[in-house]
Amino acid sequence: MIGPKRKRGPASPVVQLILDPAAEAPLYRQVYEGLRDAILSGRLARGARLPSTRALAADLGVARNTVLLAFEQLRSEGYLYGRRGGGSRAREVVPDALLTVARPARASAAKGARTRAIAPTLSMRGRMLVEVGATLIRPPGPHTPFELGVPAIDAFPMRRWAQLAGRRWRRGDVDLGELDPAGEPALRAAIASYVGAARGVRCTPDQVLVVNGAQQALHLVSQVLLDPGDDVWIEEPGYVGARVAFLAAGARLVPVRVDDEGLDVAEGMRMAPRARLAYVTPSHQFPLGVVMSASRRLQLLGWAGASGAWILEDDYDAEFRYRGRPLPALQGLEAEQPGRRAHVLYAGTFSKTLVSGLRLGYMIVPDGLVDAFRAAR
Prior knowledge:
- There is one protein chain.
- The chain is an alpha/beta fold.
- It is globular.
- It is 36% helix and 12% strand.
- It has an 8-stranded mixed beta sheet with strand order 3-10-9-8-7-4-5-6, with helices on both faces. Strands 1-2 form a two-stranded antiparallel sheet.
- The protein has helices spanning 27-41, 53-60, 64-76, 105-108, 124-133, 158-171, 185-199, 214-225, 240-248, 265-271, 294-307, 330-335, 370-376; strands at 80-82, 88-90, 208-211, 231-236, 252-259, 262-263, 277-280, 310-314, 344-349, 361-364.
- It folds into 2 domains: 27-118, Winged helix-like DNA-binding domain superfamily/Winged helix DNA-binding domain (Arc Repressor Mutant, subunit A, Orthogonal Bundle); 185-376, Type I PLP-dependent aspartate aminotransferase-like (Major domain) (Aspartate Aminotransferase, domain 2), CATH 3.40.640.
């Protein structure tokens, strides 16, 4: 019996991608960058439906998971929309800042494409920031449901916030003069009390630096602790903002895989035993959500102590749990080991618990680094 004909959707465009298995970049990253460039250059029209992940994987001769990872990254950064199993399309509007990055000559020929050359007077570091940092710029317009990194903005207590702010102004106790570069002392004391109670962090208010979101913490660490060419462990997959900060500092990224226990410390030691820094999100790994096991935490601290390396703990989304209490911060675990030099720098943000527009974050740095970070800040 012949059933009804199934309605076919519009044909997917042919996507030409060139992959190099011998390249340093993993295959999923090559697929991501190829599709991203096709969208920005106009070779892949805005609104165009992409081939299915299965069809594209077969065409490229790679595992389907490789294409799935690339698609998930493109969706999280705003280049694609749709869902797994329901097809993916190139967004009509992509992050504006990306359109200002210099592209090959063919990009300017695309209908409606906006191009603006990078100023030739920029430093090498400045050019690197423009090239890789533009991926962090959000497109203008209203937020979409389940958008990455955006809390429930409509739940923000606007009235209460206005009352508290107005009370401070009416008292006249708002200091409009030159402030401490580390931040308002009362706020730093409140942060030290909060992370001590909520996250098991051990610190004094003097160790707290108030920053413009966690991203500035990443850049400060890069400027103060890294030299060009230094090896840095990063989680694979991991947070693109960390890649931006470390690449801009001239560091050599060492992607270390993440499994069910978090960062694979043994693999990192095999790949780059003398790395200068390890960047981790141990309480809620980005983007996989796994929690680093206690044994891995101790292994990571042991490696840092033996090699003299630094650990940057990004306590991403540690406040959100479906059940039970989260493991205490890595910084607190290190502090429980007396007689050892501190190696952990802790970064947190109020962007997820309050609202991202405040651009309010904080760092906890070891005693020996307080003066250096205050000067850099």
